[in-house]
Amino acid sequence: MNGWRDKTDFKTRVLEWAAKLGVKTQSLAVRPMRNKWASCSTAGHLNFNAQLLELEREVGEYVIVHELLHFSVPNHGKLWKSLMRAHLGDYERLDERLQRSAEAGENFHVAGGNMDPALKKRRGAGRPSHGSTRHASNSSFSPDSMDASA
Length: 150
Ligand SMILES: [Zn+2]
Prior knowledge:
Zincin-like, three-stranded mixed beta sheet, 4 helices, globular, binds zinc ion
């Protein structure tokens, strides 16, 4: 498997693509993210999930180009698709690989309210969040609070 050497390797590639696509990046970070593979803001801030470093290079490149194209095309419409195809060829195949990796991983789940559902794990919410035992509303009560002399 053709993987990434390290974070720097990945970031270098991001900057290469950014130059190629004419995207001005303000900041670029690779860090652990729980819910998605990448995010970008119109101000030029880019974040990539550090877990991408463990995946194949091609898959990482897919995420890079996907995200960078959103600077000029904020949706996944026809234009975006044709640009993706122009730069990456059969990008759907890469997307599939990415989604599969997500399922193999643990902590990915769909988080609502972001403009980029494509870069999130597609599987449904899965098991319901295990109900945290709710405490009685008068939380001042605590059986073992002797005199803590606060
Ligand atoms: Zn997208």
